[in-house]
Write a structure and sequence with these properties.
The radius of gyration is 20 Å and the shape is globular. It contains 9 helices and 17 strands. 24% of the residues lie in helices and 28% in strands. The strands form 4 sheets. Strands 5, 6, 7, 8, 9, 16 and 17 form a 7-stranded mixed beta sheet that branches. By secondary structure, it is of the alpha/beta class.
């Protein structure tokens, strides 16, 4: 069942068209263009979000190049709108929605196929995959975090470490990794952060990692031996490659490795510890657990750079450069984002 959006507030209606960043074909950054298109219709259990901030992530670039074409079991349709993460205000709700009403501040985790993503002034998502925006976070912070935070949380839940046990987070200064470090601290897990560059080391230290090593320039195995002489209990891998595979040699004989599906390249040689592949859980229950951690003061997403929607090509070029934390696309920038 599809309905036209209901009024967002008395005396106002959702417009029929919106500005959106679209692809008319897969390719390089210059294929991204802003155009007027129709606002998506709202299904019975869906929420229409007026997007203020969207996350810009590494998988967006892969998707832009066509590497996700067909993986959802649905043919890609153009114009194609990227964007998996967002925060904003509810503009309209479907008739069977019970958790939200127009005007609510929310953040969400969506998929661009088949309905279109969040690089647009409006985006639609099932109410199950949206959550109230915790007052501890700004709209900007919440807009970049949903998929990475939920995936990090899912990895920690899969590993099921007890307080005091040890965890190596490989890629600890990246989008998922810097959230995983903070969620591990919230659970009482001792975290060794394998970060990237001096700025990554600084970020991981500020976020409470128990030990930090620069994976680019320092001896990770020596740092791990000093951190946990008997071997590290578990690892969460947020960036693959030869360096990650070498670092996994620091695990104890009984260790385990949480490896999110989609983190590439996959291990070329099977490590001694078992690899547990997993997907991020974006159910209502998972959002509730994440919000409970946020409200307990567990973590703060780090936004490294911000780009107005008109500079979306620059945002995608920045994905090829070194940065820590997350990148934000400011879709609709009110006077004050907070």
């Amino acid at each position: 069942m599809r309905t036209r959006p209901q009024p967002s507030s008395p005396g106002t209606t959702t417009p029929a068209e919106m500005n959106a960043v679209v692809l008319d074909r897969f390719g390089a950054e210059d294929e991204l263009a802003i155009r007027r298109i129709a606002v998506p219709e709202v299904g019975a259990r869906e929420v229409l979000i007026r997007v203020h901030v969207a996350g810009v992530a590494s998988w967006d670039a892969e998707e832009r190049r066509g590497h996700y074409d067909g993986v959802f079991g649905i043919p890609s349709r153009f114009p194609y709108i990227l964007g998996w993460d967002a925060a904003g205000t509810v503009a309209a709700v479907g008739p069977e929605v019970t958790r939200f009403e127009p005007g609510d501040r929310v953040y969400a985790a969506s998929t661009p196929v088949p309905r279109g993503g969040f690089y647009a002034e409006f985006g639609v998502v099932d109410e199950e995959h949206a959550a109230p925006l915790p007052p501890q976070l700004t709209m900007e912070q919440a807009g970049v975090m949903a998929w990475d935070a939920l995936t990090a949380q899912s990895g920690l839940e899969l590993l099921d470490l007890r307080p005091g046990q040890t965890l190596m987070v490989f890629g600890a200064s990246g989008g998922m990794g810097h959230l995983a470090v903070q969620l591990a601290r919230h659970r009482g897990i001792r975290a060794l952060a394998v970060s990237s560059g001096a700025d990554g080391v600084t970020l991981s230290r500020a976020q409470g990692a128990d030990a930090v090593v620069d994976g680019r320039t320092q001896d990770v195995l020596a740092a791990a031996e000093a951190f946990a002489p008997g071997g590290i209990d578990a690892a969460l891998v947020t960036a693959g490659g030869p360096a990650a595979e070498r670092a996994l040699g620091a695990l104890s004989p009984a260790g385990r490795i949480a490896w999110p599906n989609g983190v590439h390249p996959a291990a070329a040689v099977a490590p001694a510890a078992p690899i547990l592949p997993f997907d991020g859980d974006r159910s209502r229950a998972a959002f509730d657990r994440l919000n409970a951690a946020v409200e307990a003061g567990a973590f703060t997403p780090h936004v490294a750079q911000r780009f107005p929607m008109a500079q979306v090509q620059d945002a995608h070029r920045a994905l090829r450069e070194h940065y820590v934390g997350k990148l934000a696309l400011l879709v609709d920038t009110p006077t004050r984002i907070a």
